[in-house]
Amino acid sequence: MSWSAKLKLHHLKILVALAEQKNLTRVSELMNMTQPALSKWLSGLEEEIGMPLFERHSKGIRPTAGGLLVVKHARRLLNELERSTKDVELFKQGIQGSLMIGSSPVATDVVSKAVLALLKDYPNVHVRILENVMTPLLEQLVSGHIDAVIGRVGGNALQLPLNYKVLYTEPICFVARPGHPLAAQKNIDWVQLSDYYWIVWPTGTPIRSSIDHALVDLGMMMPANHVESGSMSATVRMVQASDMVGILSQRLAESFATEQQLVILDLPKIEQKGSVGIFWRQNEPPSDTLEAFLGHLVEASQ
């Protein structure tokens, strides 16, 4: 019998706890077992696998590269079991299936349209939408917490074990509140814009990379007066309540402009573009619900 076949649910929880706590004494207390018993079990598992999972040092333990791999799969299995339990409970309540969606703020418009269309096809499906920047969403996708992520394509996302499909490509633009000193002005130049506080996406996010590259092309630097925000709602509220200017994808900016909540500033076009797409796990066939959602996303992106 292989070592993986001998692992029980309790063992998976121990592995994850060891990686998170990095302390044998603390984990033994959490798992209600003695430290010698925990050390013996871990040593036995490492012997069966044929490699060390954790390095021992004066302050505790830390996972090895191989240990990180085993813990990653243990965490994914635990997440899938948790999802299965919730799906069974939902099924007993008449809900058939669930879909966990991670959405970057730049994709909220297309995601909302696709979810509304999905619910017409699957009225009894349970849908949950989590909004965040891409890095934590992709981590949750890889670990099995969520089923799909919609957001900008690029950076480290393409190096992860994920499938992806580009939905659309669009430029980014600057926005301000209606009544802003620059709102009705034509042919605004970049020097004028630098007189105001900017609200920008956090460093490392795809949309921030887009504006950084665009500024380099323009021979400009990011103004010292800027605020980093990964929250769409906070950004919009700050822009609406002040003379700050924000940066949004054009599709989303046009949606706010149509509702007269924001104004798109008349700046030279930023040629730097970003693609928005959907990511889902490799080596795992998508459910019927996810397949249908993907189809509706493509339609909503046209």
TrEMBL record:
PANTHER family: HTH-TYPE TRANSCRIPTIONAL REGULATOR YBHD (PTHR30419), NITROGEN ASSIMILATION TRANSCRIPTIONAL ACTIVATOR-RELATED (PTHR30419:SF8). Keywords: DNA-binding, Transcription, Transcription regulation. The lineage of its organism: Bacteria, Pseudomonadati, Pseudomonadota, Betaproteobacteria, Burkholderiales. The keyword Transcription applies. InterPro entries: HTH-type_LysR_regulators (IPR050950), LysR_HTH_N (IPR000847), LysR_subst-bd (IPR005119), WH-like_DNA-bd_sf (IPR036388), WH_DNA-bd_sf (IPR036390). Residues 7-64 form the HTH lysR-type domain. Belongs to the LysR transcriptional regulatory family. This is LysR family transcriptional regulator. It comes from Advenella mandrilli. SUPFAM superfamilies: Periplasmic binding protein-like II, Winged helix' DNA-binding domain. Transmembrane segments: none annotated.
